[in-house]
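Cross-check.
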Amino acid sequence: MSSHESYYELDGDPALQRHIKLERERARKLRKTQWWLTLLNKGICHYCQNTFLSSELTMDHKIPLARKGKSTKGNVVPACRPCNQQKQLDTPAETLLNKLDALSSQSASSS
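Predicted model, tokenized:
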């Protein structure tokens, strides 16, 4: 579980729940656009850059809906399920910081 998951109370805020519901509806509409279908057909995960069948990719919100992200072209990317699940509620900056922390920990333990 991400450290942020416990911080962001997903059930408690009615305004957040309305936001998520509205943005999920926008995401459903965006999935039907030629723009999204073209991204899926390329078959490349935004995060790991590996190639997948379009049916194996999910729509990921770089800024998660639970963190007030939007379902817009600038915020959604195709992601494989493992990358999407690993990211959880992290923002791009937090994901980068987590990677840097992991690298720092690895180099400290190998010294």
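The chain has five helices and two strands. Helices lie at 3-7, 14-30, 34-42, 81-87, 92-110. Passed to J.P. for a second look.
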